[in-house]
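Title: [Solved] Lysozyme 3D structure

Original question kept below for reference.
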Amino acid sequence: MQTRNNNNAQGIDVSHWQGVIDWPKVATSGISFAFIKATQNKIDPQFLANVKGAKAAGLMVGAYHYMDDAVTTVDKARAAAQVFYQAIQAAGGANLFELPFVLDYESNKQNLSKATLTANAKAFLEEIRRLTGVTPMLYTYPAFIGNFSGLSDYPLWIARYSNQAPVDASGWKRWDFWQYSDGQVGGTLPNGDRKVAGINGPVDLNEFAGTVSDLRAKYGKKTTPEREKPMETVAELEKRITALEKKLNMSGKEPLPKWAELAVISGKQKGVEAIATSADKSVPELSALQMMYNIGLLDPDILAAIRKLKA
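Solution (posted by the thread starter after getting help):
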């Protein structure tokens, strides 16, 4: 695999173990990106705060899931992917993250076979790709990567605490990200240090296989600017306003739509004061009334209670 390069974009990966992070200070220390732990058995207690802080500081952000040893089958792997996806949704959804979603798979205390480890990893990765529409990435280290086969179509984040390049393995001939230090041993930042401002204690150090510009070109959000629309004339605006007023007019002259007949009749019989029209006109009140009717909420006692609360 390729070697390190001093021009490569520098980043970190963090979890609750780093405590509260001063993300603006991190951003001023030469760090361009951050992978943030989202889940293991449950959501990481600092995940949401870390995502918010890193995004606000202008860093490119990714999220990772640590595959727990309790995951021993493909069904459990898919369930773990669902937990991970729920955390992504809680943070703001897949579109909030620029960097790939990551499966961190590095432990086998259950002594599972290589075939099972590969199947579990594949099930998780495929489920995340299905849920997010984004190709995820695998994180592991050289002594563990030999457990996987047939997964090299997924990008690789390799962990090796050294400046010596990892060797090709299990179908991978290159890495997209390299975790070269845990903040205590291994390689150093281009400035020769392992300390990152804004973080108390050690933190994992990583680099992307390219410059910051390369990183943003590959993973940055690409938006196509909309063509400027000509301003509407006063006459056009007045026409739109008139049409809107007509749509919202509660004159009651239009015939009652068939779909709302039973609900409106029942509502009037029960004394629903909000019914001021039988017009269709896509009036939200009719739809709400129909739903109330369908689930049996047009009950005099319930309506009386609602009026009391309103008063």
